[in-house]
Every structure is written in C-alpha cells, then in structure tokens.
UniProtKB/TrEMBL annotation:
This is Transmembrane channel-like protein. InterPro entries: TMC (IPR038900), TMC_dom (IPR012496). It is a multi-pass membrane protein. The keyword Transmembrane applies. One of its GO terms (molecular function) is mechanosensitive monoatomic ion channel activity. Residues 360-383 are annotated as: Disordered. The chain crosses the membrane at residues 75-99, 181-206, 227-252, 301-319. Keywords: Membrane, Transmembrane, Transmembrane helix. It comes from Aotus nancymaae (Ma's night monkey). Belongs to the TMC family. Its main location: membrane. It is found in: Membrane.
C-alpha cells in the first residue's frame, strides 16, 4: 500500500504531465511488434485518463448546477436510508409477530417464513438502491467507489439499447467483500483460503470472457494508479484490521460452544495453546524449547510491543521516503524554473547586444555617408 501510495501521489501537481507522457513514456528498448503495440495501448489509455481528468477540472460549474447536484444527492441518500430503515423495521415487526403468534408455535414450516421475507428483502432492496443510485450526478469515479462503500451496494447504470459498461465500482467491492469474508472465516474453516483462491481464478476468467464479449469501454476513463491505491487502502484498513480485531476478540474473549468443536472443554480458544504447552512440558526434554518459545515470544507482551514498534518504524520510514521524494521533486522543479529564467535572461541579453550592435553599425554607416563629399558622388555618376 505504501508503494502504491508513492506511485499514485508522488507528484503534487499535474502540470506538464501531458508533455511528459507524450515525449518520455516510450521505452526505446522495446523491439517486438506485440510489445510495442501493448505499449502504444498503455500510453493511449494513460493520455485518455489525463485528458478526462483535465476536462473535469477545467469544466465550469455554476451555482445552480451545484445546488441541483446537492439536492439530487440529498434526496437519493434520504430514499436509500429510508429503504434500509424500512426493511429493518419490517423485519423486526414481522419477527415479533411470528414469536408472539400462537398459530406458528410448533410448526416447522412457519419458521421458514421469516428467512424467506429477509431473503426477498435482501434480493429486492439492492435493485431499488441501484435505481436510485443511477440518479446521482457524480463526476469522479473515485467518488463513486466511496459512495458505493458507504451503501456494501454498487452503482449500476440503467440498461439501454447499447452494451452495458463494466461496473468497476461493484467489482472492486466484491473483491474486498470476498477477501474480508475469507479473513473472518479462516479461524473457523482453515481451508477457506484455498476455496477463495479457486473461486477468484474462476471468477476472473469468467468475468474476463464476459467483459470482452458483452461489455463496452466506460465513457469516463478510470485512473488506474489512484484506483489501485483506493483498493489497497480500503482492503487494508477497514477489511483486514476489522477482521483482525474480530478474530482477536473471538480468540481471547468469546467462550466456545460446549456441545461441539475442538474447544468445547475450554473457557476461551486461547487456553488451547496453554494446554498444548503443558502437554509438551510433560512429553520430555526434547521439545522443552517449544514451551520456552511460547512463554517468552507469545505470552510476553514485550515481544508484541517490539514487533509493533518495528512495524510503526517501517511505516514511518515509508512516509519519510515519500515526503523526501516530494521535496526532491519540488527542488527539481525550482531548478528547472530557475534554469528557464536564466535562459530567458541570456536570450534577452544576447538580443539586446545584437540590437545594440545593429544600431552602432547603422550609426557608423550614416556617419560615413555624411562624411563623403558631394563631388565624389557626382564624379562616380559621371564615370
């Protein structure tokens, strides 16, 4: 994530990036036709992204347009929140009615009504929110991803007579959601990462085939570097840290089931490590180093603080490297600006010297003409 952040936000301003992309992006070591064609496509896509971003920044926005956009966003948000609250209240009221109703007691079929209602709401509510999301006037694709995150619901364009666009926001959310589920379930199902890998491989090739056959290019180009930074940031902080906190709480605080499971005789799952260490101590001196490792490296908080300090130090160093690169770039920009001013000064100086020499030559020529006697000119004409 730190590397992607540096690649994405290394330069503060985008002045001159179009010229750099046009004149400095080509790799002269490329000799094969396929590689050169691929490089041409990459540069073309990069220029489309930059021009789309430049047009977005240059486009004037009136006060009325901003007010209309704010009103539309507020209305859509209120409708989406009302839909979510309405579904929650409906499920709560229906569940209370099912619990208090004497007719449903003892009937197994009636117990399936509530899950059926919840499933129908989960199936229908996202489509309603997607219809409402189509009314949102967003200009930035990154803002679309943020709005989609705030609603674990993606934005999708209304289907028209043309081919649909590939919804990058929804697919990014699906990747984050699937990876979060894999992190949450790895403690309870150790083979879940293998299933996740197989699922990702299958889904990737299926979506690639569907994209090439059924979808068209998006009307607004997506800036790939910024989108990868957003994806990694969202995957690291909300997803990974949330799953880590949940799993740590489940291991240290939650009491396991007393009916089934490998931890049914323990108060917490963390005590399984201590029981294992006691068995190792009773096994003999050959494995006596394992209890020592558990005692001084796992249970000792100093080791945890040391690892945390090293992690913070690495993050701090990466931040300082990015800041240093920004300072170097600023210094190089100042140096280029100063060199340009020096060249302009030298050109103006040379131009003034040249004009002064021309004026001196003209004055000398006029002086020499004025110094020649008129009879000389008459003799020359007579001759």
């Amino acid at each position: 994530m730190a590397h992607s952040f540096g690649e994405s936000y290394r330069v503060d301003s985008t002045s001159g990036i179009h010229a750099i992309t046009v004149f400095c992006s080509w790799d002269c070591k490329v000799t094969q036709k396929r590689a050169s064609r691929l490089q041409q496509d990459n540069i073309r896509t990069r220029l489309k992204e930059l021009l789309a971003e430049w047009q977005l920044r240059q486009g004037p926005r009136s006060v009325c347009r901003r007010l209309r956009q704010a009103a539309a966003l507020g209305l859509v948000w209120l409708l989406c929140l009302g839909t979510a609250l309405g579904c929650a209240v409906a499920v709560h009221v229906f569940s209370e009615f099912m619990i208090q109703s004497p007719e449903t007691a003892g009937q197994e079929a009636a117990l399936l009504v509530l899950p059926l209602v919840v499933g129908l709401l989960n199936l229908g509510a996202p489509y309603l929110c997607r219809i409402l999301a189509a009314l949102e006037p967003h200009d930035s694709p990154v803002l679309e991803v943020y709005m989609a995150i705030c609603r674990i619901i993606s934005e999708k364009k209304l289907k028209r007579r043309r081919k649909p666009e590939f919804d990058i926001a929804r697919n990014v959310l699906e990747l984050i959601y699937g990876q979060t589920l894999a992190w949450l379930g790895v403690l309870f199902s150790p083979l879940l990462p293998a299933v996740q890998i197989i699922k990702l491989l299958l889904v990737f090739y299926i979506k690639k085939t569907s994209l090439l056959a059924n979808c068209q290019a998006p009307r607004r180009p997506w800036l790939a570097s910024h989108m990868s930074t957003v994806f990694l940031t969202l995957l690291c902080f909300p997803a990974f840290l949330g799953a880590a906190v949940f799993l740590c709480y489940a291991v240290w605080q939650v009491k396991p089931s007393g009916i089934c499971g490998p931890f049914r005789t323990l108060d917490t799952m963390y005590e399984a490590g201590r029981v294992w260490v006691r068995h190792l101590e009773a096994a003999g001196p050959r494995v006596s180093w394992l209890p020592w490792v558990h005692r001084y490296l796992v249970e000792n908080t100093f080791f945890v603080f040391l690892v945390s300090a090293l992690l913070l130090a690495v993050i701090y160093l990466n931040i300082q490297v990015v800041r240093g690169q920004r300072k170097v770039i600023c210094l190089l920009k100042e140096q280029i600006s100063n060199e340009g001013e020096d060249k302009i000064f030298l050109i103006n100086k040379l131009h003034s010297i040249y004009e002064r020499k021309e004026r001196e030559e003209r004055s000398r020529f006029r002086t020499s003409q004025a110094a020649v006697p008129p009879t000389l000119f008459t003799d020359e004409r007579d001759a």
